[in-house]
Design a protein that fits this description.
Shape: globular
Oligomer: single chain
Structural class: alpha+beta
Strand order of the largest sheet: 1-3-2
Largest sheet: 3 strands, antiparallel
Order of helices and strands: HEHHEEHHEHHEEHHEEEEH
Radius of gyration: 19 Å
Helix content: 40-55%
């Protein structure tokens, strides 16, 4: 039941995963509380991955850069990163997604404005054209599948947790010189903030957690005090 649901959805939040595991344990008369908490849930995921490895499948954990929410993603390790997206979309659609991805990675903000995301559909390889209607439909679909996140507070799109989990190797190999690592959680950081003194990059949610635990907030890299 759990794997069927995860395979269908492809990605679930940590809370959703806990609820699914608990329901499965209830069905087999095991204590559902063993799935509660990050440690208990991770133990179940490790056990499941042990059996999935022979099928070249894996459940990977990642974090949404926007909210800090943890997610679990069902991944086929036999597919390369590009085919994971192309399997459901045309080559032209993927070319458009790659334009958006590149714009995010090369920007200081780590996101792309909504108006700019539509403009990018006019600049595709081999001078191929895509209508705004189709581009808007793709953006909605990618957001619903969590490849992207729409941040309506600043009218922008950011990489969603599924893209960060499934395409991380592709992102690092294709844009390695432009990709940085969060100095707090040591994972890839596209959408984040920088220390004004040493330019070290952090996720916003990592900086928020650090702020909760320290009386005086300092950069963990250069130790300068943050206001």
């Amino acid at each position: 039941m759990f794997l069927q649901t995860l395979a269908a959805r492809r990605i679930v939040s940590e809370r959703e995963a806990e609820e699914l595991i608990s329901k499965c344990l209830e069905l087999v008369d095991r204590h559902p509380n063993s799935a509660s908490g990050s440690q208990g849930l991770q133990e179940h995921m490790t056990l499941i991955n042990t059996h999935l490895s022979t099928l070249f499948l894996e459940i990977r954990k990642g974090t949404c850069e926007n909210s800090g929410t943890k997610y679990f993603c069902f991944v086929n390790n036999k597919e390369d990163e590009v085919s994971k997206l192309c399997s459901n979309y045309s080559p032209l659609d993927f070319a458009y997604f790659r334009k958006i991805l590149e714009k995010m990675i090369l920007s200081d903000e780590g996101c792309v404005q909504s108006t700019d995301s539509l403009t990018l559909c006019n600049n595709l390889p081999d001078q191929k054209k895509m209508t705004y209607v189709h581009a808007k439909a793709l953006l909605r679909g990618w957001c619903s599948e969590r490849w992207l996140i729409e941040d309506r507070s600043n009218n922008s799109f950011q990489l969603g947790p599924r893209a960060l989990i499934e395409l991380s190797q592709y992102i690092q190999s294709a844009y390695g010189d432009h990709v940085t690592t969060c100095s707090l959680c040591m994972t890839i950081c596209i959408y984040g903030t920088r220390c004004e003194d040493c330019n070290t990059k952090f996720h916003f949610h990592c900086k928020t957690k650090l702020n909760r635990n320290l009386e005086v907030l300092r950069c963990p890299s250069c130790k300068s005090e943050w206001s």
